[in-house]
Amino acid sequence: MLLRFSLENHLSINKEQELSMIAASLKGDGGMLIRTPAIPKEYLLASAIIYGPNASGKSNFIDGLSLMREAVLYSQSRWEVGSGVHSFPFLLEAGRNEYPSKFEVDFVSEGVRFTYGFVTGKDKFIEEWLYSYPEGRLRTLFTRTNTSEYKFGSGLTGQKNAVKDLVRDNSLFLSAAIQNNFKSLSPVFEFFKSLIFRNSISSPPQAIYSEFKGKKFDNRVMSFLKSIGTGIDGYTEIENKRSEEFVRDSREFMDFLYRKSDKRDEIVKELSEGLDKEYKIEFSHKTLNGQSVFLDVARESTGTRRLIPLLVSVFDALDNGLILIVDEFDASLHTQICDLIVALFNNKDINENNAQLIATTHDTNLLCSSNLRRDQIWLVEKDEYGASELYSLAEIKTRDTDNFEKGYLQGRYGAIPFSASINNILEKLQIDG
Fold first, then answer.
1. Is the pTM of this model over 0.85?
2. Who has greater pLDDT, 210 or 382?
3. Exposed/middle/buried for residue 304 (C-beta within 10 Å: 0-12, 13-18, 19+)
4. Are 185 and 210 contained in the same domain?
5. 226, 335: one domain
């Protein structure tokens, strides 16, 4: 479970900004709240929805959390020596690109609270730290300073010094430890694995086919599609034999790509499995006389094609207590569909495993949703220097009877594209033209 995530000097984020999933003390706001023995005095939120105008920096918060996950899981195994640390500092302040960037996350995994973070320079990791709070008491597991100076706490068991010697300037100690089966850090590893990102605005048919190949189609996805009026009432799986020429050319191409790899034969063999067959899914629709007509995924609407893989991730998160992060939540989706997905996470009977949803959106209708508390609504706007600032609606003085959608569109809470009337803007465009 995510408690908070903070970010500094990354893309449009200049000074440190924090997204908190810890519930505020609000009167009159119900909704689902999560309890955990790891922080017995606090409640956690099941979802957070981030608003703001185009180019305000909403996606940059998502990008920062995604980069953090990538660095933890793959910096040791996939980042090449001398390739840097994938750092993207704020550039709209003179000299800021020379400053370090900071990433920190507070979370609960396997019943224990952890705080993990790192600081990056232009081409290397400068600092790294991990703390745990067993029984509510702070315990240092390790700290890393000046890139290669380490201090290990007694709570961290395993071959610490052996792993330390494997760490490069552009890789994390945590990533190296994970690659070397550091079992005492498995709860931290599992948290970063639990972050699911859905950033694609549209899903091509092939991406949908890959979601279901070799898997059982989730009946809840079909029930959802039926309930919202897509016209879909069933599906069929199709496998067609590919031509020998296609299979031969594909294998030759894969062999060429991995020719320099010491595991070439193993990789090509794995990628070639099932290459001789083309897997597809078709969805059925009822005709006027009650017969079923099957349509290829490519003939379904853009919204349906985006919704299907999104629903797979939604139910995966709900089943396994994962954290689903969706950028452009409302893209090609009706507002009632978005509200229904939010309701799934905020329903105690459905979200039994304390999954969480974080999403960016422009859909202002959700501001009136009964499924969202004020502390679940976050706003992003840029200051006069082009830096993104993040804040919660709960930080603004409001009344329970306020129409939050109307107030937001009127500019009472900030984070809107413009405050002038449309007529004034049209007049200005005519004059400037």
1. yes
2. 382
3. buried
4. no
5. no
